[in-house]
Specification:
The protein has one domain. It is 84% helix and 0% strand. It contains 8 helices and no strands. Helix 1 runs antiparallel to helix 2, helix 2 packs across helix 8 and helix 4 packs across helix 5.
């Protein structure tokens, strides 16, 4: 006879996995607009804790509400981040196959810069679930910078894992369909949850 508690645990995990994949699908559809990519990522990050905790239903409706909020406030900065990311990738690819001493200098600048940008992006995602609705790009950037400075090693580890995943996805493009939004979101969620747990311990002490 199956253990009821184990069955319930399995069903709960399947429910979480189904909700996450549903949000990933919605993210993919909306992201085709390019301008909508980062607002969609911000909305996914805001809804992700509820999908994992299963505390609040109607996740898709909340996703679109958060997407509307993010689109109004961050669409231009999101497009700038997209364009800047493409320029960084192009620059690194160009200099990686170049020759001469300038190649070393250029890569020594571009690779740490790309790591810093990814670290700030993960940090920004990590603080998004708790960000107030009146947040602006300036306040999010300040909070993300504070988060990054306070947890440089965990964020650096997240950047390494994220780059490894992108390297795998470049060889297996199907991974992008199941994780292009979820992998960064889950990485940032883990970073943010650790910070919240430590804050809770400080308060209890």
């Amino acid at each position: 006879m199956p253990n009821p508690s184990r069955t319930n645990t399995v069903l709960a995990k399947l429910s979480v996995a189904g909700d996450l994949l549903m949000l990933q699908l919605v993210f993919l559809v909306i992201s085709f607009g390019i301008v909508t990519m980062f607002p969609a990522a911000f909305a996914l990050q805001r809804v992700l804790p509820d999908a994992i905790s299963q505390d609040r239903p109607k996740l898709v409706r909340r996703f679109f509400r958060e997407f509307s909020w993010a689109m109004k406030r961050f669409w231009l900065s999101g497009f700038g981040l997209y364009a800047g990311g493409l320029m960084l990738v192009f620059g690194i690819s160009f200099w990686a196959y170049a020759s001469g001493p300038m190649r070393i200098v250029a890569l020594a600048v571009l690779i740490p810069l790309a790591g810093m940008v990814l670290g700030l992006y993960l940090s920004g995602l990590a603080i998004l679930p708790d960000a107030p609705v009146e947040s602006t790009l300036k306040t999010l950037f300040r909070s993300a910078t504070t988060f990054l400075m306070g947890r440089p090693l965990p964020v650096a580890g997240g950047v390494v894992v994220l780059l490894t995943w992108f390297a795998l996805a470049s060889q297996l493009p199907t991974l992008l369909f199941v994780g292009s939004g979820l992998v960064p979101a889950l990485m940032a969620y883990a970073l943010g949850r650790t910070r919240r747990e430590k804050s809770s311990e400080d308060v209890s002490i």
